[in-house]
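are you around this afternoon, could really use another pair of eyes. what follows is a protein written twice so to speak, once as letters and once as structure tokens for the fold. i want to understand how the tokens follow from the sequence so walk me through it. anything you notice is useful, everything is just below.
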Amino acid sequence: MEKYARLLLFSFSSATIPPMEEHKSNPSFKPIATRKIYQYILEQFVHLVSTGVLKPGDKIPSERELAESFKVSRPSVREALRVLEIIGLIDIQPGGGAYLKEMELGPFISVVAPLMFSRDRFDLELLEFRELIEIRAIELLPNPLSAEALEPMGRAIGEMRRALLDNDVEAGALADIQFHRSLLLASNSFILQKVLELVVSLFEHAVRGGRSVVLEKQEDAAQLLHDHERIYQELADGNTDQAKKLLSSHLAMVKNLART
């Protein structure tokens, strides 16, 4: 562990923060904007992750150690760590340090989601995009689908049933989202999973903001549950073409509900 820590600190200490120079006015050139110190620190983190020096689960050096290695102030390091946390690259545990994790888009999306939802028809465009990636996900599914891959989808359907009985619109919508997340995970496509992560983060924001795709009418929620049950059964039976048709029909219904 000590040897690893020395290697990690050496990697950070090799980072050079370019000195800030004064640029004289010259009609032939445009002035180059001065970059903030934390941006150079971010670049070093990205480099260490991409080269495998840092891996998910690794504890990164303390704020004080990073400041000494970079030869910058602790506020600059703190600012960089905050940005890394916002973009979902590290997890800062109060009193326990910071750890690298698999990059998640959710934390960043939660910050910018209100701006996206201010656009007209954004909800509908999001549903149309979902259809594209989920149809492709079904095409990539192994056939037959394993019990392990089907289990989280079945669990999500069970949660939708409970939400319907309790007339819990938000819980039903979140279970709906979990079903579709499980579908993408079963495709084993990293890029589709990351794209869906972005889409799901937006939908979760919509649900928590009171813009659930599931309306409060019991008959609509019941129909959505029935759609998921049929998609699940077709996937379990290995009928991917029928599952794709049902998925398209399901999302068409959701779009109609969203328009009303």
